[in-house]
Records
---
Amino acid sequence: MPAEGPRILLVDDDPVTGIVMQRQCARAGYHCRVFQSAQAALDAFAAERADLLVTDLRMPHMNGFEFLERVRAVDPDVPILVMTGYSSIETAVESMKRGANDFIKKPFNFAELNVMIERTLQAKRARGQGAGQTATAQRTDRYHMIGQAPAMQRLFHAIERVAPTQCPVLITGEAGTGKTLVAGALHAHGARPDGPFVALDCGAVPRSLIESELFGHERGALPGAQQRKAGVLEQASGGTLFLDEIAALPATLQAALARAIETQRLTRLGARAPVAIDVRIVGACNRDLWDLAAVRATDQLDHQLYRLLDRVRIDVPALQERREDIPALVQHFVEHFAARYNRQVRGFDAASLQRLCAHAWPGNVRELRTAVERCVILAAGTELAWPAGGQDTDGPGQIVFPEDNFPSLDEIERQYIEHVLERAGGKKTRAARILEINKTTLWRKLRRNQPDS
C-alpha cells in the first residue's frame, strides 16, 4: 500500500459497495483496500496496518462484531467505523462496546461517510500530539456527546463513576437533552458491556400493550398471542434495561416493576411460575416529575419505585446551562447534514451564530439539531443564516421547499413529527393530540422513522 495519504481498509461482502468505495476514496485522496472476507481483511491488517478501518456488520463466517473484537486484540487504538442497514440504539451500543469509534446507517452517500472519516482521522492526529491534548480531546467529545462546559464535564465524570456499578440509575433532564445517550454510555462502559442493552419508551407504548411489553406473556394469554413472548425485562437479563419516560407507566405497573427490580423475578402474563432475571435498570424522566413533593401531590410515581431508582441520580444539563457548547454542536450538525443532503455549506455567519447561541432552545439539543437540519436543507449558498427573530419569522405553519431539492414524503413526515414533538415539549400524548392521531400510530411512526445519530 502506498505510504502517502490516509490508508483505509474496507470490509464488506457486497462487491458493488467495495467498487464504489474504492473509487470514491481514490477521488478523496485516500488509499483504500477492499476485502469481502473479514478473515482476509484481518490477515492483511496484521501484516500491514491501516490508518482507519470501515466494516459492515452483517457478513458470513465472521460478523462485524467479532471482527471488531479481533482487530482490537491486534491494535487497540486504530479507528474503526461501522456501517450497517440495521440501525437501532441496541446495534449502535453493541458496536461501541465492541470497539467501534462511530456508526453510520445504510444507505448513505460517500460525502456523509467522508465527513465521518475526516473527523475520525483528525481525532487520531490530535491524539498523537501529546498526552495533555489527548485528555482535552477526550473530555470535549465523549460518549458520543460534545461538551466543554463544566456541566458536561460533571456529567462525564458521573458516567465514569457510576457505569462500572450494577446499581439502578435515574437519569433526569429536560426533553431533548440526550438522556438516551447517557443510558447507552452507562451500559457500554459498565460491568457487563457484552450483555444486552434494551430500550423502551414507556410513554410511546399504548397502555393496553405496556404490561406485555414489560413482563411478556404466555401463548393464549392475550388476544392474538400465538406464542410465548419474553418482555423487555427478560430480554435485558444479563445486561441493561433503559426505561425512558418511566413516570408514564400506570401506577399498578409501577408497583409491579418495583417488585421485579427488587426481587429480580417476574411472572409473564398467563404464567403460573415466576422467572428469575438479572438486569440493571436505568430509568429516565423529565426532572420536574422527580421532585418528591410533586410526586406525592400528584401520585404520578410509585414511592417504592422512586426509592429504588433514586439511589443514584444523573442529571443531564439543559442547553441553556451549557451555552458555550452551542458553536461546537452547531458545526457538528452542519457537517453531518451537509453530508447527508449533499449540500456544499461551511457553516453559519458570525451574526447568525451569535443569535443561535442566544436563543432559548426549550427543546434543547434535539431542537437545535432540527433547526440546523432545516437550515442546511434550505441552504441557497455556502454560508448559512439564522434570522433575527428565529425561524418562526416565516410565519406559523409555513413550509418552504428549495427549488432544486425534492424530499420524500417519509422525510417530510419525519421532520414534521419532530417539529411537533419539539413544540409539545417532548410529550408524546400532546404531540399525538396535535397531529390528530392516536399514541399507537405515533409510536409506530417514531419507531419507523427513528433517526440515525
---
Amino acid sequence: MKNTLIVLSLLGSALFADAAKPNIILMMADDLGYGDTGFNGNTIIQTPHLDQMAKDGIKLTHFYAGNSVCSPTRGTFLTGRHHHRYGIWTANVGHLPKQEITLASMLKEQGYTTGHFGKWHLGTLDKVISSKGAKRKPAENFAPPWQRDYDRSFVTESAVNTWNPGAGNRAKNNPFYENGKALDPDDPTLAGGAARVVVDRAVPFMEQAVKDGKPFLSVVWFHAPHEDIEAGPDYLKMYEEHGEGAHYYGCITELDEQVGRIRAKVEELGISDNTLIFFCSDNGPEGKTPAKRRQGVTSGLRGRKRDLYDGGVRVPALACWPGKLAAGTESDVPLSTLDYFPTLGNLTGYEMPDARPIDGQNIWPILAGEMDQREKAIPFIRGNEVSLVDGEFKLLLPKGELYDLSKDWSEENNVAAAHPERVERMSREIAELLESFKTSHAGADYNDPEFKPVGKWKNVGSKKK
C-alpha cells in the first residue's frame, strides 16, 4: 500500500508539473450539519448551487472536519497538521504560530497570489481589543492573516451576525478588517447577507489575479450558519411556514447563492478548467437537538457540535475540477481537512523544507479514482477525549468505545469487546501520536530558539482518577 501511494503521488506530481499551476478556491461553512444540504438529502433547505457543484464534481460522503469546534479545524485546514501540535486546543484559544508552514506560505512561495475572506478565528486581529475580551490576551495571540502570508484579506476575528454582519451583538470589538484596516460598522458595504459581503471582496481578488496572469489561492470561510443566525426578508419569505427555523434555512440559502456566484465568476473568467474548488464545513451543527433557530441536522449521525461522534466532525463536502475529477461521482473513503495541505502541495510540486510531521495525506489518488482507501488514520482531540478513525473503524478514548462505521452509521453498537487486538493497536497509535504532538508543541519542528510554545500542554485521553 505504501509503495503504491508513493508511485501514485509521483505520477500526480508529474501530471501537473508542466501544466499551469491550478487556481485553488477553498470554501468552508460554519456549523453546517452533515444533513443541511440538498446534495446530502435535505428536502427543506434550498441549496441548488451546491447541489450543482456535487453533480459537476465529487461528493465526499465520509469527510471529516479537523475537530468538532471551529478554531482547531481551521488550523488543520491550513497546515495539514493536528491542532495540538501548535496549541490551538479549542475555539478562541491560542493562535497560529508564524513558524507553521501554511497553504498561503507554501503557495506564495510558488508564485501564487493569496487571499483570505470571511472568518479567521486563528488569533486576534488587534493587539488591544478582541471580540472575546481581555481573557483572549489580544497582544499575546495577535496573528492576523496579513502577517500569515496573505496578500489580500477581509476578515473578522470570530463569528458575526449572518445578516447585516457589521451590526448586532457579535460586532462588538469584532470589526471586519480589510487588509489590516478596521472598517466602520456602519460601512454600507457590510449591509445584507454575510456571505455576499464576504464574496464581494473575494470576486475582485480573483479578477485581479487573472488580469495579472497569476495563479491564486482564495480561502473563503463563510460565517453561516453559526450564531447569531438571521436571514434577510426575501429569504424568510422562502421559508415562512417554518417559523424561527426560517432564519437558519434562509442564511444557508444565502450562502449557497454566493457559492454559485463564485463558480459563475470562475466560468466567466474562462479559468474553470484550471481551477480546483473544495467545499466543506468546520464541524457539526449547534445545539443538543434542532430547535428554534438552531435547525441543523446530521442525517442520523450521532452527536453534534463539540462531540467526537461523527455528528460533530463528519461534514458535507465536495471537490470539483472539470476535466480532472470525474463529474457526478462519490467517494466514501475517510478524508479530512488535514488532507488539503499535502494534496495541494503535491499538485503544485512543493517540497517541504524540513521533516516536520504532516498528519494529513495526499488524497489526489483517491479523488482521481486511483485508490479506494487511505493510508493514514485520522486523529481527533476534544477536551480529554481522543478518537481515531482508521479505515472502517473508530476508537474513542478514554471511553474505550469502538465502532465499525461501515455497518454502524449512528455509532450505536460498541464492538470493542469483539476486537481487543484492534483496540490495543489503535490505542498504541493514539499514544504515539499524542507523544508526537507534545514534541511538536514544545517547538521541536521549528528550529527556532526564540519560539515559545502556545499555551501549556495538557495530557489527554486517560480516565480521570
---
Amino acid sequence: MVMNRRFITVFIMALMASGLMVAYADDFNVDEIEAALKTRIENGYAVGLTVGLVKDQQSYIISLGQSAKANGFEIDADNIFEIGSISKTFTGILLADMVQKGEVKLIDSVADYLPDNVTMPTRNGQQISLLDLATHRSGLPRLPDNMAPKDINNPYVDYSVQDLYEFLSGYELSRDIGAETEYSNLGMGLLGHVLALKAGMSYEDLIKQNLLMPLAMRDTGIELSGEQLSRFTTGHDVAGEATAHWDLPTFAGAGALRLSANDMMKYMWVNMDVAASALADAVTLSHEINAEFAAPQMSIGLAWLIRDDGDKSYVWHNGGTGGYRSFIGFDKQAKQGVFVLSNSQDNVDRIGWAILENRLDDLIAEKIVKVKDADKYVGDYQLTPDFILSVSQEDGQLYIQATGQSKNAIYMKSENEFYFKVVDAQISFKFDANGAVTGLILHQNGDHPADKI
C-alpha cells in the first residue's frame, strides 16, 4: 500500500488562472482522517481512494493506494476516475444554465425537443417536462425494458438512441406525472440527450462548452485523450477483480463522466459558493428545492439531493459504475465539503458522511476474516414470496445476491454476524441446535427475517 498526500498546487494554479481564489488547508485533522482511511486500503476494502476536503477557504486532497490491484501505480490527484451518477448533477447544472440563458424553460415539454417521429409518453393529458426529468418525477422507470446488454460488464454501451426512441414511443406511464419520485437513469439520460439536441451538439461537447471550459476542468470528460488514458485508473468489482470501464453513449447525462480529483475539487468549490464563477446563478438554481425525495428529510433540486438535518442542510449525490464508487457532499452555510473517489466497491457514502459529521471512528475498517465452513451458509433465503437472498461463497468469502440485483460481498464479524461494505446493512444468521443455518435477518431500515429454503 502506497500513500500520497499533497497540497493541491496544480489545482491552485488552475483556479487562480480562471479567476478563482483558494488557500491551503491547515485546520483539518488530516492525519487522523488519513490514518483511518489507510485501514481501508490495508484491509482490502478499497484498491485506491482519493478524498477531497474543503473547510472555509481551505482545501486538501488525500490520495491512497493504487490505480490497479495488479501492476498499478501510486494514485495522486491527477488520476482519473469514473463518477457514475454524480454526472447527473452536471446535467442538472447544465439545465439550469440553459434556463438562465433563456434557451429552455423548466416547464418545457420534453416532446418539444424530440424528433417528430418519437411519441413521448403522456398521462391524463399531462406531458413530461424537463423539470420532471431533473427531479425523477416523470413516471419513467429506472431503466427501459428493452435494454438487453450483450456485455453485462459494460451494460449501456450497446443501447442506442433508436432503442431509446422505440421504448419511449411504446411505453405507457403507470402513474401520474409528478405523483411520486422514482430514481431514473433513463430520465436523466433522456434529459442530457434532449438538451444536446436543443444545442445541436453532443452531450460531451455541450458540457465542455457550458461547464467544463468556464471552470477550467480540463481533466473531465467522456472520451479521454491518450495522455489522460495513461492516468485513468482501473475499476474493480465486488470481488476485488479488475473490470471494464462503462460507456453510456445514449445515457451520457446519467453517468458517463470521468474526472480527476483536482477537477472534482474545482467543481466542489464552485458548488459550495466558496469561489466566484460565471456559473454561480446556474449552480444556485440547481440547488433550489423542487420536490420531496423518496426518503425522510430528503428533497431534490435539479438532480442534486438535499438532506435536512435540522440545523444543517447538505447538498449531495453519489455514483457508481461496475468498478467505481463516488460521493460528493457539502454544507454551504458551514462552508464544509467532502468528496470521495474510489476505483473499487468501498462504501464511499459511509466515508463521506463520517467526515462531514465528524464520526472518524466510522472510517476505520476491520481486517477481513475468511469464513470457515463457508458452505453451511450457502443457499436461498426467502425474504418475501417474490424476493430471495441467495448466498454463495468463493474461497471462504460470502456473497449475497438479491432478486434482480447484483452480487455483493458480506464480511464476518462473528460466526453469525456479517456486514456489507457497499451499503449500511448487516446480516445475522440463525442456527438450529445442531449448528445448521436455518435463516437470516437482514438489518437495514429495520429487521427483516428470511427463512432458508
---
Amino acid sequence: MSKGEKIIQNYYANESIDYLEPSVTSRTIIDDYLYKRKPVIIRGLIDDWEASNKWSFSWFQEKYGNIYTNVFSSGNEAKSSQMRLKKMFAKMQQGEILYSSLYTKELFPILSPDYPLAGTILSDTKFNWLLDLPKTIHGDMNVIFIGNTGTGIKNHQDSMGTHLWSAQIMGTKRWIVSPPEESEFMYEGKADWLKREESIEKYPKFKEAKALDFILKTGEILILPVGWWHQTEILSDSISITHDLVNETNYHHYIDELNKSHQSDPKVETFYRASKSIQANWAAQLTQKKTTPIERIYYSISFEDLLEKYLIPHQAVILQNQINHWPALHKWNLDYFRERFGNAFIQYFHGHDDKSKKIRLRKYLETNFDQPHYSMWCLDEFYDILAEDFDTIEPLNNKEKDWILDLPKKELNALTWIFMGTKGSGIANHTDRLGQHVYSAQISGRKR
C-alpha cells in the first residue's frame, strides 16, 4: 500500500466520494465534510437554474462573442492568452482543444440571475461568509470554465485559502483530487495524473500518490475543501461555474493567505481590502472553543524575534518550511523502523490515560491492537544513527540559542523522542516536567 493510499484511508475513511441529496443542510456539510476536509458532491441542487437549461457554446457565442476571456490549451492557466469568445469557439470548431476561464466581474450582474443562489445552501451567509462582502466584488468569486472534450486544468492547489464549490452546468468533467497531506508527492503540481508513468520517471515520489478519481455530471455540485490538489479532464463539452467559499472551517487559512499574499496578487489585494472591515464580525461567528488559534509563520524568523515574540511571552507558534530539507520526511515510515530498529525498546499506551508499557519496536508494529495506540521512543543510543535524518531548526541551531546543546551527549540524546500513533490515539493532558520549552517536528500524518 502506497503512502498516499494510507493517507486517504486513515484520514478520509474511504477511497470514493460521497453523494448528498439537495435537502442537505449547510450545517451537515460544515460538520461532516469541511471540518473533516472531505470533498462531497450534491445532486439535484441546481436543477431549476436557467443556466442549466439555456447555457451552451452557441448561446455564449451569440450573446457574448465579443467578450474577452483567458484561453489556454496546455492545462496551465498561467500560460493563457486573451481572446474573444467567438474566436475561441471558431478555433474549437476547427478542431483545436481549448479551455477558457471567464472571470465574471463585469458579466456578474447579467449572468448571475441564471444561477440564483437564493433558496439553496449556497446563499446561506453562515455557509459562505464571502457573501457578506460588497456585491461589487461578488463577480471576483466566480469563474465560468468553458472547454471542449479532451482539455482540462493541470494538477494544482487553489490560492487564497478558500474552499470551492463547482457546479457542472453542461457536459461531464473528470476530477482527480488528492488531500494536502500528499503535497510532497505532487512536485508543486508538475506531476500529471493523466501521464502517470511518465511523471513517475521524472518525479519518483509521485508513485506514492493516491487520488479520488470521479466524474462530475451535469447538474451536480462538487464541494472541495481548502488545500486539496485537483486536476481535471473534460470528457464531453463542458460549462461549469466555480465559486470561492469561506466559513468557520477555513477562516484562518483565508486570513493568513490574505495577509501573506495581498501585496503581490491584485485579486488577493481586492479581497484583503474588502475583508478588513468585516473580520471582527466573522471572528465572532467562530465556534467558541476553549482554545485559541495558533499563529503560523511562513517566513524565516530570527532567534531574537522568536525569543521576544514567543518564548518569553510563552506563546506557542508553528514554524513552516523549516524542515523541508530533512531526509526523515521521505525516509521514515513504519517499514523502515521495523527493518532497521526492530529490536529497540519503546513505551506504548492503550488510550490517552493508560500507563505506558515497554515493548520491542518490531513487536509493537506487528501487534494488532484492538484500540488506538500511541508510542514514545527515547532515542538514547540510536540518536547518532537517526540524527543524519534530521537537524536542529534554523532559529535554534547553536549553543548560544539553545542551552540544551551544552549538555553532555548522553543526556542530550535522552531528551530526543520519536512519537508514533494510530488515528484516534494521543497523549493525556500534561505539562513537561523539566521546565523546558519543546519543539515538535511533524514528519508524517496530522496531529491535533
